[in-house]
Amino acid sequence: MWSSNTMPALAIVLSALSFIPSTSATVPLEGYGRDDYPVDCAQACSYAMPYNLDCPEYAGMTAEEKAAAYPSAACFANDTSYLTSIAYCIHSYCPKTVKIYKIEYFWEVKMIYDSEALTIRWSYPEALAQVNTTTPPKPMSPDETVFNRTISIDTTTYQSYMNGVKGYKAVAKNESMYSILAFMTCVMVPIGFSLLRFLPLPSSWRSKFYGYFIDPPAWGRQHSVATLGIGMVPTRGQALFIIYLIGINCLATFAGYPNYTPNGIFPDRHYELMRHIGNRAGSVAFANIPVVILYAGRSSVLLRLTNWSYSTFLLLHRWTATICVVQVALHSLLWLRIMIEGDSYPLVLTYPYWYVGIVGTVAFSALIPFSILPIRKIMYEVFLITHIVLTIGALVGSWYHIVFLYEDKGGFEIWLIIAFAFWGLERMLRILRVSRYGIKKAYVTRIDDKYLRIDIPDVDAHGHCFAYFPTLSWRVWENHPFSIVNCSKGQLDGESPSPSSASHTQSENEGAISPTEASVSKEMGGAMSNIRQLRVQCNTTKPGITLFIQNLRGMTAKLAKKADTGIAIPILIESSYGHEDTSRFEPNTEYPNTLVISGGVGIAGVLSSLQASLSMYAKPLGTTKLYWGIKSKGLVDVVKSMIVGGDAAEEKEGEPSNWGHIETHVSVGERMDIKRVLTTELENAIGGTTVVVCGPHAMCDEARYVCAAMARHGVVIRYVEESFTW
């Protein structure tokens, strides 16, 4: 069931996940390799101690200034009253089962802040030896304004602080647990869902299930076409996982806050929840950052381990990013309120962790408005640059926020390290894919006024690619997705081209251009002669790929200026992408038929499915039909010549013809009736049918809606959409 490419990818994911609880450049996560409160009872004693010591640095202060001051670490480490009192508290309340070495570790490392640079006056046994246990010390009375003797802590006070320590430990461990849960399930659940396709269910059940729960839009009829021009409605399958994403993040953010009362650390439950939820929102947002980056990667291992499309993962990338931004905003707003209510806001503004946190929050928040669909469609280059800049600002701000706040002791860096690793791996794989072919030459030909053709010799790729045109713009990093057409006659008709036949075809075609044709083609920009010449190029066994492009604006307009010049332009090819799960195209006993519906240059995206219909059998197992709607005939001539070497001009428009084993229906200049085509072909089909669609968004949405409706009524359909939606 698993391909040779799938098992290594799965091993990479499992290996990475196994390091999550403990791997970090600094310290592990709380409760998973780290325990901030290793001795609960000693920590409770530390919190229960009053801090109105008589410190040397208080000399010259007024009574009011002393009351507002907090002792230095050196004062705690050298104050006799403090050391003897906390030693007596530990001796009184810690169970005898607590090992002495654990208490000594607490004494040296955890008892006083900034203890690394301190030498504590007495060790725990030495401090305890200073206490007269024959006359036990008494608690500090309200009349005592200075803590200058050995005191005891009453049971009620100790228990309230012990409750606070228990609550803090439980919340801290839950924070780590829910962060790991959110990350791991967002990575593993798509893999688990995808494995369901291997269940041996009858095709009729599977078809109905997909017709009800997976393929249709979540509501209405549109999926690829933007609703109100703002965003796309997910499919029901996508919506189910989006609901899961929202649910698991709500659970991770708002669950797991036990209430221990009385609580000496947080006597106000409202204040306690604000702190805990604020911290949890920030922690889970950190855990979501690597998920956001993983979903956005076009080289992501999830694309190999699942049968989900890249467009689906881009949709999930946007939803997960939105959830992450909401969590960042919640974290910031709750802590802003805490600081304002505590009259600490003017002071905290001077701390580095606070203002770099503001930078991170602003960058995160700005990502949403700068990533809306209208900006992505109208100003893609602006979107791309701002997206990169804001993402860098958000990640750098987040990194220094936790570095300044926790001084490499929080463990949260692990999530950013994983995110950077995902990003670095993605970029490395892209570089490797590009370097596989290096700089190649691309020849641009104008098929007609609407379409361009790009031929790249000496490249053997399939599926989809991303093409870089470094000489067309100063933005050399920009790349554009294209469907690949393998340039070899006979691939779709079950034949293997030979050098002799290729040579013969070349001589015939070269001699078929009359002086009149040459004159006419010159006036038309060389389009006719170039089409004939490119037919010849694709009839050879020399490897190469072809890209079809609709002549619009931006990059395609620049390419159009290079057409028919005979001068090659440099190109970098990043491939191959897509079609990791080729079994979705292959006919089998359950789905022997293949029905392909294409619009315009969408033909390039479905040629691989037509080729796959012969990949397991010498002859088609069932029927293979192509319905293609296009505005002009020039591209039809080129595609047919690539498939069977004939000329579409020999056919009558609107009538079916055979291109090898493919029954072809081409509609030129008129809109296809998608519902009629699907109803006619599917209602009386013998066996199940794989329906492959690629073309304009409106056409794809109509095909999706009709196929889902027919599947719900018992027609056995396997729906595949090859359109790229971003």
TrEMBL record:
It comes from the Eukaryota. Residues 493-519 are annotated as: Disordered. Keywords: Ion transport, Membrane, Signal, Transmembrane, Transmembrane helix, Transport. The chain crosses the membrane at residues 177-199, 239-257, 277-297, 318-340, 352-375, 382-402, 414-432. Residues 1-25 form the signal peptide. It is found in: Membrane. It is a multi-pass membrane protein. One of its GO terms (molecular function) is ferric-chelate reductase activity. Residues 281-396 form the Ferric oxidoreductase domain. PANTHER family: FERRIC REDUCTASE TRANSMEMBRANE COMPONENT 3-RELATED, FERRIC/CUPRIC REDUCTASE TRANSMEMBRANE COMPONENT. This is Ferric reductase Fre2p. Gene3D superfamilies: Nucleotide-binding domain of ferredoxin-NADP reductase (FNR) module (3.40.50.80). GO terms for cellular component: plasma membrane. InterPro entries: Fe3_Rdtase_TM_dom (IPR013130), Ferric/Cupric_Reductase (IPR051410), FNR_nucleotide-bd (IPR039261). One of its GO terms (biological process) is iron ion transport.
